[in-house]
């Protein structure tokens, strides 16, 4: 039977918070007390982004996790991101405000099935998108993110055969950009797969001067319409550099918070999905709340752990990605 301590460690003990507490001030105090750093992905709710020490895309967050001198990393993102931080900094305590903050794309590639898939292509090198489990990374030769996927494929000899997983949309985009024939795993993200080409076309007609910008996890039919395709950091930078005043954004809506902060006179419109949902929220990213972040910092739980043998194997392909990225100045 699980002890109370074990349940607490895994974040199963619900705790109420004094409603008069100033959570922003409490979090600042706890960060100092525990020598903790908060790393947040752009898809987190605005309050979380505002208390974070570093906000970034998957590549930036991995780089920051590898270089931080904090004792505790509070990872405001999803499970695979916190696992990556733990693999790069195994001596540190890595906390995730809600352990159920998973990822539909990571779930679309169960390691036992990927192992069989990989066995069918014994002479292929395996590149996996960082949005996958630690177990999958341990089966890979190089990890990549949406910022560096094209450059990582291009860094390999032309004759090198490659398996790319788990995202088929990112894989197809990389194959098109590099002219390489990649063997793709059939996985996808539930948020990026549902943008509606028809509704975007109508929205563009109503906003003829708006730039349409998209994350490469979107389907090819949507990417074909884009003025710019890039990672979350790429999209944010484009919104800053572009002279346009209006943008239609085909990715998770959390990024709009930083776009609006950086460009107070510009307008950002979330791209419409196929369903009737008005927003493009990732249900996993949005499991984290400021309250859960405060509690996890206060209690030192829930903690993300990775078995030692997986850390050993998964570290090599992640470090290879970081080395290639550093050599390219990414
Ligand atoms: P980025 O690395 O571009 O931030 O993407 C992360 C992600 O989860 C996209 O769905
Ligand atoms: Fe995973 Fe998609 Fe959410 Fe990104 S937006 S964390 S790929 S489910």
From TrEMBL:
Q: Does the keyword Iron-sulfur apply?
A: yes
Keywords attached to this Swiss-Prot or TrEMBL record, sorted alphabetically, are: 4Fe-4S, Cytoplasm, Iron, Iron-sulfur, Metal-binding, Pyridine nucleotide biosynthesis, Transferase
Give the enzyme's main class according to its UniProt record, as a single word.
transferase
> Needs which cofactor?
[4Fe-4S] cluster
Name the domain of life: Bacteria
Reactions this protein catalyses: iminosuccinate + dihydroxyacetone phosphate = quinolinate + phosphate + 2 H2O + H(+)
Q: Which GO terms describe its cellular component?
A: cytosol
Which pathway is this protein assigned to?
Cofactor biosynthesis; NAD(+) biosynthesis; quinolinate from iminoaspartate: step 1/1
Localized where? Answer: Cytoplasm
Where is [4Fe-4S] cluster annotated to bind?
A: 103, 189, 282
Q: In this record, what's one Pfam family?
A: NadA
Q: Which InterPro entries match?
A: NadA, NadA_sf, Quinolinate_synth_type2
Q: Which NCBIfam families match?
A: nadA, PRK09375.1-2, PRK09375.1-4
Q: Which family does it belong to?
A: Belongs to the quinolinate synthase family. Type 2 subfamily.
HAMAP family from the xrefs? NadA_type2 (MF_00568)
Kindly provide the name given to this protein in its UniProt entry: Quinolinate synthase
């Amino acid at each position: 039977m699980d002890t109370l301590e074990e349940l607490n460690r895994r974040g199963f003990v619900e705790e109420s918070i004094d409603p008069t507490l100033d959570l922003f001030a409490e979090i600042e105090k706890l960060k100092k007390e525990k020598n903790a750093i908060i790393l947040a992905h752009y898809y987190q709710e605005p309050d979380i982004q505002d208390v974070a020490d570093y906000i970034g895309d998957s590549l930036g967050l991995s780089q920051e996790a590898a270089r931080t001198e904090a004792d505790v990393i509070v990872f405001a993102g999803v499970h695979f991101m916190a696992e990556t931080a733990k693999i790069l900094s195994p001596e540190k305590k890595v906390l995730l405000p809600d352990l159920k903050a998973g990822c539909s794309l990571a779930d679309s590639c169960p390691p036992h099935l990927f192992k069989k898939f990989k066995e069918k292509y014994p002479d292929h090198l395996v590149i996996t998108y960082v949005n996958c489990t630690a177990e999958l990374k341990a089966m890979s030769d190089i990890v990549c993110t949406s910022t560096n996927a094209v450059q990582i494929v291009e860094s390999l000899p032309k004759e090198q055969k490659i398996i790319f997983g788990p995202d088929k949309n990112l894989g197809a985009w990389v194959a098109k950009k590099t002219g390489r024939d990649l063997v793709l795993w059939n996985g996808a993200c539930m948020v990026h797969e549902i943008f509606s080409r028809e509704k975007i076309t109508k929205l563009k007609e109503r906003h003829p001067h708006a730039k349409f910008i998209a994350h490469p996890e979107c389907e090819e039919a949507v990417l074909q319409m884009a003025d710019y395709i890039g990672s979350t950091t790429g999209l944010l930078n484009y919104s800053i550099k572009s002279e346009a005043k209006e943008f239609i954004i085909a990715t998770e809506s959390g990024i709009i918070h930083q776009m609006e902060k950086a460009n107070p006179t510009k307008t950002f419109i979330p791209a419409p999905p196929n369903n009737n949902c008005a927003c493009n929220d990732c249900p996993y990213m949005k499991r984290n709340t400021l309250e859960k972040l405060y509690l996890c910092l206060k209690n030192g739980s829930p903690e993300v752990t990775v078995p030692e043998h997986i850390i050993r194997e998964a570290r090599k392909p992640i470090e290879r990605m970081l080395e290639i990225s550093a050599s390219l100045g990414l």
